[in-house]
Amino acid sequence: MDRTRFSSCFGRNVFLSVLAVSCLAACSTSKSVKSEEALLRAGDTALAGGDAGAAAALYRQAASVAPDDFTPYDHLGDALYKSRAYSDAFDAYGVALTHNQDSLEIDLKLAKLALILDRPRDAVHYFEIVRRKRGDDPVIWNGLGVAQDLLGDHIGAQKNYQAALKIAPANLGIRNNYGLSQALAGDYPAAIQTLSDVTADPRATARYRQNLALAYGLSGDNVNASIAARRDISDADSASNQGYYATLRAMDDRSRTRAILGSEFGGGAVGGG
Q1: What is the C-alpha to C-alpha distance for residues 205 and 209, in angstroms, rounded to an integer?
Q2: 249 pLDDT band (50/70/90 cuts)?
Q3: Which of 4, 19, 87, 126 could cross-link with 111 by S-S, CB 3.0 to 4.6 Å?
């Protein structure tokens, strides 16, 4: 037998076998990508239609198809957030971040969720990562302020609000947070002035006016608290608030801060609007 001929044939057969395996792998990868894309599109459609539960299920399927891609986990976090499954959303974004560690948007989502979950140290960690790259964004400074307030560092929080207001001086949301921080620090004259200026703005909402009433109530000035509150609520509700203010005054700083800021930020992301 011609050994040269055998060797040549054997080499060619090996080459063809490797080529076939490579083609199968490429086809399989291509199908996986297409499957992931289709599942993501279907999930996005479900989420846009208001069915966050169905969207989450589709994103989980996409993640099982492409476990090393951050996108399904990022979208899953969005769906879980809309379902108010905040702890699960935080975990999903965390997985997404392990696959895309340079994503400031995921860092920001984690920072905002950390506030909702009453994890202010985590919030500071993620906000600081974003701030180093986006220090001109008032939302980041505002978020840091809220986190510092939750940690009990009201003076540090106010420095962050001041930094935010240098960038966006007309932002009512940030000015409101600044005033609340002053009230939490016990500087009631400053808080009342800040929140009075906020409520004087034509864009001010009932929430801001009730925060002014809160500042008066925390200071013990029930008369002006009632006047401010009755601009938006009934006399009976305003009278009921007096007991709430007294309860807040009797709390320690940590409990009072969480009671006040929890009602402000517990239902959604922290912005500057």
Answers
A1: 7
A2: very high
A3: 126
Who's near 129: CB < 8 A, 6+ residues apart?
104, 107
* Eight-class DSSP state of 84: T
89-107 CB burial, b ≥16 within 10 A, e <16: bbbbbebbbebeeebbebb
Per the CB < 8 A criterion, the answer to whether 87 and 95 are in contact is: no
Can you list the domains of the chain with their CATH numbers? 15-101 (1.25.40.10), 137-273 (1.25.40.10)
User: Quick check: 37 and 71 in contact, CB under 8 A?
Assistant: no
Evaluate the CA torsion angle 44, 47, 53, 56 in order and state its sign.
positive
Residue with structure tokens 């004259």? 189
Q: How far is CA 242 from CA 203, 237, 249, 251, 272, in A?
A: 27, 9, 11, 15, 29
* Distance separating the N- and C-terminal Cα atoms of the chain: 85
Rg (CA), the chain: 27
Helix (H, G, I), strand (E, B) or coil at 261: helix
Contact by Cβ (8 Å): 61, 92: no
| Rounded distance between C-alpha atoms, residue 182 and residue 197, angstroms | 14
**Is-contact 97 106, C-beta < 8 A?**
yes
Q: Could you tell me if 128 and 144 are in contact, meaning their C-beta atoms sit under 8 angstroms apart?
A: yes
Handedness of CA 180, 185, 188, 189 (dihedral sign): negative
CA distance 58 to 43: 5
- pLDDT tens for each residue of 22-54: 443 444 444 555 799 999 999 999 999 999 999
Q: Are 105 and 92 in contact (CB under 8 A)?
A: no
Do the Cβ atoms of 260 and 248 come closer than 8 Å? yes
3-state SS string for 130-168: HHHHCCCCHHHHHHHHHHHHHCCCHHHHHHHHHHHHHHC
